[in-house]
## 1
Amino acid sequence: MRKLTIAAALAAAALGTGIGLLNAQQPGFTRTVLQDQDLSAQDRHAVVARAEFVPGGQAGRHTHPGEELGYVVEGTLQLLVDGQPPKTLKAGEVFFVPAGVVHDGKNVGKGKAVVLATYVVEKGKPVATAIK
């Protein structure tokens, strides 16, 4: 019973910081938080995450309460940002998503796609919010 209580407390803490929502997984997509660090910029923190997409996998439409800076480590990713034409990115290329803009990422290659992303977001808000 004590282990269940501790697990529930940890899950609630993760959801409170927004990390739990960041880790919500779509089929074919996994995201692992590597670091969450307060910044000297007032009311901001940085979250570094590694995302992996199986062929055809996608993150799902979502927003962030701050900027996303990404680097494609492996594979081919199609970045779909509302108001912009789709961009196809390959390993070694970078991308930027402005705060609050609806976007999605999809693996359009034959192998897995891996992205390293840094989110500079407002403290106290979910790092990612899914859009239906």
Note: The two ends are 36 Å apart (CA to CA).
## 2
Amino acid sequence: MIVLPIAAALTPLLGTAAGLLTARARVAGVTAIIGGALCLVLTIGSAAVVMAGRPIQSAGSLVYLDGLGAFFALTIAVVILLSSLGSLSYLAVEQRRGVLSPRRVRVYFVVFGLFATGMMAAVETANLGLLFILVEAATLASVVLVPIEGRTSGLEAGWRYVVVSSMGITMALAGTLFVFYAATGIPGAPEQHLAWAFLVRHAGSLQAVSLRLGFLLAVVGYGTKVGLVPMHTWLPDAHAEAPSPASAMLSGALLNVGMYAIIRFVAIANGRLGPAYAGHVLLVFGFLSVIVGALFMIRRRDFKRLFAYSSVEHMGIIAIGLGFGGLLGVYGALLHVLNHSIGKTLLFLTGGSVVLAYGTRRSDRIGGVVSSLPLTGAALLVGSLAILGSPPFGLFLSEFTIIRAGLAATYPGLVGLFLLLLVVIFIGFLRTTSGMALGPAEPRVGSPYSGRLERWSAHAPVVLGLGAVLLLGLWVPGWLNALLLRSVALVR
């Protein structure tokens, strides 16, 4: 069965192969969609195997998929498929308009596949050292996508992304080494001292001082990838400057990979230090992220930067859920990972259609999207309500679960602050997007897409995303609930 997760990680490379063979966005885009669909199908198969028995693993645990890994792999695979669909239409329009040269189209699809494969592989290993390598590989691939449209601001954002991420990943490496050192007194092969299952099983024998420092460095290092404040400075620029499908991948998938790494370190730390230490660290970073995200969403004119600061806020919410801990806290945090990934992918892809139609990211120059582009405008408005945690959407359920966790953990003051921040975010975010959707219309604006294939690939992920966030708000399927509960058991 080990072939399933390996194949799931490799199928996005179909898009890479297509990019090497052709510079036509439509042809490469269709191939990338096929790769994304196969990735999702194989990931579902891998998750089914994990749920039916033991984790899938190879000798040395270099390939390892348990319930938590299967959940994150499934989340990333969904984002890959939706973003692949959006890539076809977005790049076809930009190629037709001359914004992207054939060479840049090739580079986009080559790197897009490598980026997707790196993220899938990162959540399918149990080795801390290999995780570090794969996260960095995925980061390096994603850096190429940020300035792909050739703007000076994109080059600056890409450079800032490289610098900040390099500093962060260095800290993550230092944290990994400290955890390895904390396990040196435990009998076993040296490679086992970097394997999660081994470390969690022998957590009580780890050296406390080294583990405490290693955990803190890991949170700071991988928190840079997640966009936790104050390590978030690269995120608004990179997410705003990248093509919208790439922004969806950055926000909906790459941030999750960093959070996945942090959660694995939380599981190790809890076994030796108790849940209080990791919980307090995550609560500090979580609330800082929500506060900063809320402040920077007030009167934000660049709507893609608005979406980016929303990602900072939602990563903070996930950290808060993990910090509150317990069954409700971890369950709510993991459910929020899935809800945010789908909701933010939906918003970035919808935003891509708006950018193509209006030629700007300035919200004060965009209006009447609902009347000019009915489906896009409706998706923008409904997607905004969904990402803000309005009922009956999935993010309301996950945020409500996190609030219940805070009350159960006797943090009423923090819960009150959390609710206040959510109100500020709701007003600031919706003020911008509702003005775009319902403001005075620009009569010259029409659909940027030409032909049935482009329209289908632009609208399909929007419809699927809206349906998913609504479904998850009304009903959590039994198999997903079981997968979430199995994942929670691995963390607590």
Note: The longest strand covers residues 56-57.
## 3
Amino acid sequence: MRGGEVADFVTASLRVVPRRALDKGYTFRYPELEPALRDLLGR
């Protein structure tokens, strides 16, 4: 695999949960990436 292929492989199967922040009661404006990117990009 080349660098880009490795990055695609790793990120495609990655599920990151900010457990400590959530446990302390933090709420995210955008809990999912797609709506956050849409807002950021104005779409």
Note: The helical segments are 3-12, 19-23, 33-41.
